[in-house]
Give the backbone structure.
Amino acid sequence: MENITTWAETVWEKIALKMSAQCDRLGASVPYAAVNGKYSDKMKENIYWWTNGFWPGMLWIMYNASKEEKYLLTARAVQERLDASLAGFEGLHHDVGFMWMLSSVLDFRLTGDKTARTRALHAASLLAGRYNPRGKFIRAWNRDCTGWIIVDSMMNLPLLYWAGKELQDPRFAFIASDHADTSLKNLVREDGSCNHIAILDPLNGALVETPAGQGYAAGSSWTRGQAWALYGFALSFRHSGEKRFLEAAERIAEYFCKEVSRFGFIPPADFKMPGDIIDTSAGSIAACGLQVLWQLTKNDEFLKNAVSILKAIEASHCIWDPAADGIVNMATAQYHGKPEERHVPLIYGDYFFMEAVNRLGCDHPWGLEINIW
Ligand code: GLY
C-alpha cells in the first residue's frame, strides 16, 4: 500500500497542475471530446448531453482538495447553465444521475448549498418518473425506446438511493433495486460479461431481444459497459445491502480483470472485437469500481488489478502538458462511432481517472472523505 499511495501522490500533483490550468482556460464551458488538444463547449451544442456533469464533478473534487474558490465558482456557474436542461425536460434521459450526482449532489454534500440539493432532488424525481412498474425497470433513452434498458443506467441508481435517504422516502430505493434486479436478469451473462442493451416488452417486462449497442456486435462485450456494470452493481450493494448485487459485481469484476490482463491492462473498446481500438475510459471506470469492491470484500486482488490498470494508463496515455486540454488520451465513445470520438480525451475518461487516483489518496488531505456515488 505504501508504494501505491506514493505513486498516487505523484500522479495527483500532476492532475492538480493540469486542472488549475484547465479551470483558468475553460471556465464554465463544458468539455466533452478534445479535438487537436482542445476541448470545446458541449453545452452550446446540446444542453441535455449526458456528460455535462463530469466537468463540475472534477471541479468539486479539486475544490475539496485545494479549497480554492475558483473551483467552487466555476462549478456553480456550470450548474446554473444546467438549469436550462431541467426546465426544458423533454431532452432529458436515464443519465441524469451522471449529470446531477457529480454536480449538485457533490456541491450539497461538500458545502450544504440548498439550491444544489433542490436541483438534485428534481433530477432524482425525473429519473424515478421513468420507472415502468409492470416491467420493473427504468427506461433508457427517449423516442420509441419504451421497453429498452441499458447497462449504463446502473451508474445512475446512486442518485435515487441518495434522494431516498435525503427525503426519508423508501420509494426511490425500491425503484433503484427493482431496476438493478431487472438488469441482473437480462443484461448480466453467466460468465460475468454483459449485454449493453436489452429490449423488454413494456407491458410485462418479458425479454424480447439483446441487440448490439456501443460495442462491436450483439453478444460481444463492450468494455465500458462491463465497467459500468462492475461499478454499478458494487454501488447498488453498498446502498441496498442486497448480497446478490455484490455477487454480480464480483463475477463481472473477475471477468473484467481476466480479460483486461490479456491486453496489458489497457482495455480494448470491446473484449470480443476484431481490430485494435482502445478505450482507456473503461479502464478508469473499472479501477474505481474495483477499489469499491476491495473496500467491500477486502479481496486484495481487486485493488491490485485497479492499480495495474491505472499505472498502465498513466505510463502510456496521460497528457501532462498543462497547455493541452484533456488528461487521458485514447478514450473511445463507441466501437462503430465517429472518428473524432475515437482515441481522444473524453471528459468521462478524465473524470474517472481523477476519481480513481483520488480514491487511492483517501488518507491524504487531497482525498475525498465522502463516497461520491
Ligand atoms: N452513454 C454512456 C456511455 O457512452 O458510456
Notes: The mean pLDDT is 97.
